[in-house]
């Protein structure tokens, strides 16, 4: 493939964003080509509907049509370092999901013997010890093995937390992001690895929309109707920003700085969850500004008091 592409004059190459696409995009760029990646769900509507079935030729024709559309949204091409950092995040998230599945399985198994414990992990671990002897036969062994495996996952997750935090603190852009309330090392590292310097987005609102933190539209006849957030795009980034926003509201206390007053007023006027989403969306926009403008980014006095 690469020798064939290298022989072509510089041209536009469109590809679906899939496993290995970023690697090939970097290689094609080295030979002077312009490479654009698209989410497969945005390419599918351009597949010829008049023909039955799905084959490589129809997929290629759909990609050629989609890549030339002026309103098409493209996936930012990641460099090798970004993908290395994302490997840390994806592996850590896999361990977290596996640990959650283990605790859910554990609660379901002990419920078969009439033992019902809280869902919160700390409460579950604290109270399950008193019930282990009540489990008959091999059930005691099964629960013990599940708890031991969960302990191993806890250690793995802690190791990856340290690795991600270390990588974030070594990077100047990540350190600037961590100055924002609600953005810690894990969120800063994930944002930087996902959107890079932000040059693939025109403004912060596009980043918030890409993460799925903007309201969906159901407008017709010139009347705008805004619904709930779209939840499109990167769910991992969205969850990190939402968790950061929740930590901000939980730690407001009696703080009287401009940001705390704005967040408290928003929660009182619009409710807790709408305030969480608004804070998360604001952090996404400001994160784009920090990454896009770098050291030149400065909040205006009015924005600083509200942000």
What does this structure look like?
This is Mobile element protein. Residues 7-112 form the Transposase IS110-like N-terminal domain. GO terms for molecular function: DNA binding; transposase activity. InterPro entries: Transp_IS110-like_N, Transpos_IS110, Transposase_20. One of its GO terms (biological process) is DNA transposition. The protein has 307 residues and is mostly helical. It folds into three domains: 2-67, no CATH class; 80-170; 177-306, no CATH class. It is built from 14 helices and four strands. The chain has helices at 2-7, 21-29, 40-43, 56-67, 80-111, 121-128, 138-170, 172-177, 185-195, 204-211, 235-250, 258-270, 272-293, 301-306, and strands at residues 12-16, 34-38, 215-217, 226-229. The strands form two sheets. A two-stranded parallel ribbon has the order 1-2. It has a two-stranded antiparallel sheet with strand order 3-4. Helix 5 (80-111) crosses helix 9 (185-195), helix 10 crosses helix 13 (272-293) and helix 11 (235-250) packs across helix 13 (272-293). It is globular and about 75 Å long. The N and C termini lie far apart (49 Å). Residues 301-307 have low confidence and may be disordered.
């Amino acid at each position: 493939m690469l020798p064939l592409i290298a022989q072509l004059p510089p041209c536009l190459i469109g590809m679906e964003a899939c496993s290995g696409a970023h690697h090939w995009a970097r290689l094609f760029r080295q030979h002077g080509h312009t490479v654009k990646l698209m989410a497969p769900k945005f390419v599918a509507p351009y597949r010829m509907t008049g023909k039955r079935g799905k084959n490589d030729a129809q997929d290629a024709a759909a990609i050629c049509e989609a890549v030339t559309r002026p309103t098409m949204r493209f996936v930012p091409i990641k460099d090798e370092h970004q993908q290395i950092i994302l490997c840390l995040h994806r592996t850590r998230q896999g361990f977290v999901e596996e640990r959650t599945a283990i605790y859910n399985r554990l609660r379901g198994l002990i419920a078969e013997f009439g033992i019902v414990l809280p869902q919160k992990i700390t409460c579950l671990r604290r109270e399950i010890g008193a019930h282990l002897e009540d489990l008959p036969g091999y059930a005691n062994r099964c629960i013990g093995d599940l708890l031991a495996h969960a302990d191993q996952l806890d250690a793995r997750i802690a190791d990856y937390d340290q690795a991600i935090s270390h990588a974030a603190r070594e990077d100047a852009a990540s350190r600037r992001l961590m100055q924002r309330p609600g953005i810690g090392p894990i969120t800063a590292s994930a944002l930087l690895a996902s959107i890079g310097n932000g040059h693939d987005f025109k403004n912060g609102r596009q980043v918030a929309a890409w993460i799925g933190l903007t309201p969906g539209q159901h407008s017709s006849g010139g009347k705008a109707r805004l619904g709930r957030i779209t939840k499109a795009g990167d769910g991992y980034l969205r969850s990190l920003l939402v968790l950061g926003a929740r930590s901000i509201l939980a730690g407001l206390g009696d703080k009287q700085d401009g940001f705390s007053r704005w967040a408290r007023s928003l929660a009182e006027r619009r409710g807790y969850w709408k305030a969480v989403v608004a804070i998360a969306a604001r952090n996404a926009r400001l994160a784009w500004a920090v990454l896009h403008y770098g050291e030149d980014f400065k909040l205006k006095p009015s924005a600083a008091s509200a942000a």
